[in-house]
Amino acid sequence: MNTEEQIQTFRQAHAALRAELGKVIVGQDAVVEGTLIALFAGGHVLLEGVPGLGKTLLVRTLGEVLDLSFSRIQFTPDLMPADILGTNIVMEIPGGRREFQFQRGPIFAHLVLADEINRATPKTQSALLEAMQEHQVTAGGELRKLVEPFFVMATQNPIDQEGTYPLPEAQLDRFFFKIIVGYPTADELSQVLSRTTTGARSDVERVLTREALLELMKLVREVPVASHVKDYAVRLVLATHTKTDTASPIASQYLRFGSSPRGGQTLLLAGKVRALTDGRFNVSYDDIEAVAASALRHRLILNFEAEAEGITTDHIIGQILRDVPRDAAAVSV
Prior knowledge:
Blueprint: H1 3-22, H2 29-41, E1 45-48, H3 55-65, E2 66-67, E3 70-74, H4 81-85, E4 86-92, E5 98-104, E6 111-115, H5 122-125, H6 129-134, E7 136-139, E8 142-145, E9 151-156, H7 169-172, E10 177-180, H8 186-196, E11 208-209, H9 210-222, H10 227-238, H11 249-254, E12 255-257, H12 261-277, H13 285-296, E13 301-302, H14 304-309, H15 313-323
Parallel strand pairs: 1-9, 1-10, 2-11, 3-6, 6-9
Antiparallel strand pairs: 4-5, 7-8, 12-13
Helix pairs in contact: 2-12, 10-12, 12-13, 13-15
């Protein structure tokens, strides 16, 4: 299969997923698009929004349209790490003897929905760290590999809501995208009400197998990035690093810490997916800028001054995009 055919196959798979999700999800185009970008790039997604906006429905529907194993974990304050990873239990075997056998937890699935992840305690939240980064868990005294592909799709409520625990920075950094789920428009809300109060049912079909998804994820990694575009992504990340020569003025004023290298990785991988969906086999400046907010908003740590003035990470990212020129030659020395 040549490159043009591979791109066409990718676009068809992407369109099929969008069409099936559209049978259930009303509006939220940016949210759906961001989730699919992370999926094809092999990254985890954090969806943030108040209850009732369809975050859980989106991930559950995605699990239905992909031919992958799916599990759902409802995070609560009394949830324990063993409830996620699994534990050794005593089993009686033939002959009347008993032995420990490892009972796998819900983490052993291709697609894991971590629902309301910030309602569990930090101890339980940390149970996902190893799984999200290394696709393995240490449980029952042994190292156990997770199935491939492996995705965590987490939802969380805004941290100022009752009964929430902020996710630690190390865990936030492991999420490929943080996507903000906003309120529907009047037309979208009307469609939601029509679909959910009339007894109508929308059945979705599985449109992508595990093997096909792995091939498409492999194709994403093969998309080339020109040196000047990669340099632009590097300069965007460095502009978030406070107290450095490369820092943007707004970063030095309002940030305690800037983005980790994972932010740069996310910019390039997400840019590659966006290029493929547009029918291109090369990443552009526009691709990088389009994904910058979702890739970086959870990797920037605000200082007290920013919080006191109500400055958001999205505001800072927008200003950095204006401060950092696309052409490296335009950077003042």
